[in-house]
Amino acid sequence: MIDRKIAPAIRDVEEINFLTPKKVLIDNQLPFYSLENTGSDAVKLDLYFSAGTIVNNPLVANFTAGLLFSGSSTKSSEEIHNEIDDLGGFVDINVSHEYAILSLYSLNSQLLELLHVVLSALNDVTFPEEEVKELLKDRKQKLKVNLGKVNYLAQIELQKRLFKGTLYGKTIELNDFDTINRTLIQDFYDTYYRKGINKVSLIGNVNDDDTKAIHALLGPWYKKKISPKSMTFNPEKGVFHVEKAGALQSGIRVAKIMFDKHHADYHGFNVMNTIFGDYFGSRLMKNIREDKGYTYGIGSMLAEIYQNGYFAIMTQVGKKFVDPTLDEIKIEMDKMRNELVGEQELTMVRNYLMGQSLKAADGPFSMMDLFLQVEVADLDYSFYNRAIHVLKTITPQEIKALAQKYLIWDEMLVITAGQQLN
Amino acid sequence: MIQFERFELANGLKVIFHKDMTTPMAVVNTLYDVGARDESENQTGFAHLFEHLMFGGSINIPEFDSPLQNAGGESNAFTSNDITNYYNLLPAQNIETALWLESDRMLSLAFSKKSLEVQRSVVIEEFKQNYLNQPYGDVWLELRPLAYQIHPYKWATIGKEIKHIEDATLDDVKAFFKKYYHPSNAILCIAGNFELAELKTMVQKWFGDIPKRKKPPRIIPAEPKQEALRIKRIERDVPADCFYYAFKMAERKSEGYYIADVLSDELSKEKSSKLYLQLKKELQLVTEINTYILGSIDEGLLVITGKIAPGKTLEELDAALWLVLDQYKTIPISEQELKRLKLKIRTSREFQEQGLLNRAMNLCFFELLGDANGINEEAQIYQAIEASHLLELAQSVLRKENCSLLQVKSIPSKKKSIPKVKSIQK
To answer: What is the pLDDT of residue B426?
Structure first.
């Protein structure tokens, strides 16, 4: 009989293979990264535009992205979508703060044709008045739905106060819809989308002939990357409440401006934050969900923005649990600041994060993400090797010092959104 | 083609092994043949509450997640109306840790009182977060009992009401475990770079001595044939009127299921569909419209849902919708459109099959349906569908007498809708 009380021996993750994508400069200027996808016909092609929300006008950036396939001088929106669908393709646009990514999902046999359809639609978008009106109507209704969610209310309030006075702090309001017009959108498109690709990534098996043809199609679309302006932030501190009558639960955010991947404390902070709130076994989850049952989920993260970053704790709790939850968050911060992490917990977090790194490097789709996350910050894979080194060698004393430096309640911006108890 | 091997232990545990030599990770996925459809009507939400308790410690191991995290892994689970599925993803060299944990909770739970109390509270917060505290959150709590009168699909996996979750006792938990959580009611799939012989030895070592129990019989009342259109209108403080047309459709194992799946794509999955073009683009009656199928094992639902555009009404939409649906019932889809739908299905499949976890979960699910190899046969079934099949199915499914309609009418709140912000002294 086996003794079930004894855990099987575990073996450390010793090696992680970071594959560097192949890099070609199309026409000596447009970076084209590619990774093969062994044993599959699935292909993903990403086109990068300097068309994010902080380059100029966040609202216009969002609406323009939603209208890229709304019609060209030769084809209607319907015709363009028919062509994309005929090729069995899927097209998706994602707008982040700094850039917009247009993703094409396709079978390898269809990719060249799909790219042709997409680029020709993108080449002279005419923004028909009807299409613009329709999108604004749809988005306005979506915003109204979102304004009924306490998590959304907490999130935008955080954005407004943490990034006050900058484009990061501009959120979409209902009356903004009256200020947007076709001309603003057309101008944004002309400046940031038309012939505006600054980077391309391809995952999948594409034959040499098609690859050459793809390069030829993309070459003329090159435009140098437009870097956002550097910003300094003057975040508000203190506790703010957004009242939402009738809400059964409240959204909670606790946040602070932090730093980006270049900061000396970055890797150490990540380990500290994992222990504190960034995995299922974290202190916040163990206490506030698994011991108290105040919430379905709670977590903390270090989010990145251009040349900067912010730390945020996020949760949604029953309205009678708001104050107890904030109290417990304070208690957990104090524990991180005042007590050394035990060896057992630290070992678990080291092992867990090594497993996560192994997973993050598993397969070409994940690998391309890993690569581009450092590429965009002008870093390379040595960043991950450094992360692993810190993970393996950081001491409980160093973790405590990081908590003392950064987890300071009085420096936090606290947002609650919901119905306040009387 | 997804390769796999299959074997069964003496205690009735079905095991599927999917070898993937390209990954350093491994998946241990366990499907239990129990879902919300197995609950009694005055104790709904129990299968899902139970899923939470499966992480609260087992007979020999005080905590589930810590040892797994210590081995570099992570885990999660989900409950549907049909099944409960648990997975672990971890570095392949530590697979025994997952087998140890998963087998111990199949052997017996710790049945801790504290775990029940805490998870009861967590699930109540989950109920509020997903169903009660957001616009349109409760529509499925309303639509299910409209579409199903007898079949247990008439309640959602979260449960009919919070009270059922509040009332659950530790004795209920023990009885549920005894009935449903044992080898002959489970399917295990292991995926990763292993040799079959070593894998068999490991599985036998950890799962072989779990006592065999009888697979519980499933007696579910058949839903009577729907004879007439059912309409329910609810009023809510939401920003726009909203509609759900739910049509009964074939069970998971029948050919009609696949045809209905393609029909739902034809209807409005993409921006080139008739429904989208006529109701949204041309008549501008809706701001969004979508069609999907539930994918349930027993008789399912094909749902057309959307939101009414400002200035338009539910009545205008209703009249126009039935006219468009009539076109689907009289004009066969063109060869080009059919080819397009099939090609999109192929593209989607290629992407879905990228994930190791996805493959493991699907292998378990198809084995539950009768044969894990079903996962490889699906592509052919889809490709064999013809225009005449879609026409016939539209005629038999998209009928008023086969439809349950839920309308959500927007009523303005008496309170101010713009949230007020205030600063609070610390």
So the answer is: 41
- Write out the DSSP string of A212-229: HHHHHHHGGGB----PPP
Q: Does B238 touch chain A if contact means CB atoms closer than 8 Å?
A: yes
> How far apart are alpha carbons B27 and B17 in whole angstroms?
10
Residues 6+ apart with CB under 8 A from B66: A281, A348
Nearest to B354 among A293, A358, A365 (CB): A365
Taking CB atoms and an 8 Å limit, are A149 and B135 in contact across chains? Answer: yes
Distance CA A59, CA B356 (A): 39
- How far B130 CA lies from chain A's nearest CA (Å)? 10
The tally of CA atoms less than 13 A away on the side-chain side of residue A344 is 3
- Give residues with Cβ within 8 angstroms of A247, minimum separation 6: A150, A319, A417, A418, A419, B133
pLDDT in tens, A84-128: 999 999 999 999 999 999 999 999 999 999 999 999 999 999 999
Length of chain A: 422
Instruction: List strands edge to edge, sheet with B25-32.
Output: B5-8, B14-19, B186-192, B25-32, B84-91, B74-79
Of A54, A89, A49, A86, residue with least CA distance to A68: A49
Locus of tokens 């903004």: A176
Question: pLDDT digit string (tens) for A169-206?
Answer: 999 999 999 999 999 999 999 999 999 999 999 999 99
Rounded Cα distance between B286 and A304, Å, is 37
- For chain B, the residue count is 426
For A147-265, where are the alpha helices, taking DSSP H only? 150-162, 182-192, 208-218
Contact B138, B200 (CB under 8 A): no
d(CA B239, CA A152): 15
Q: What's the predicted TM-score (pTM) here?
A: 0.95
Nearest to A281 among B69, B206, B281 (CB): B69
Q: Minimal Cα distance from B266: which residue of A?
A: A85
CA distance B98 to A315: 29
CA distance B376 to A23: 36
Location of structure tokens 């739902």: B264
Instruction: State the CB neighbour count (10 A cutoff) for residue B416.
Output: 9
Q: How far apart are the C-alpha atoms of B404 and B10, rounded to whole Å?
A: 46
User: Measured between CA atoms, how close is B79 to chain A, in angstroms?
Assistant: 15
ipTM of this model?
A: 0.94
Calpha distance B95→B92 (Å, rounded): 5
Query: Per the structure block, which two tokens stand in for A359?
Result: 């997973």
**Span B145-180, pLDDT tens digits:** 999 999 999 999 999 999 999 999 999 999 999 999
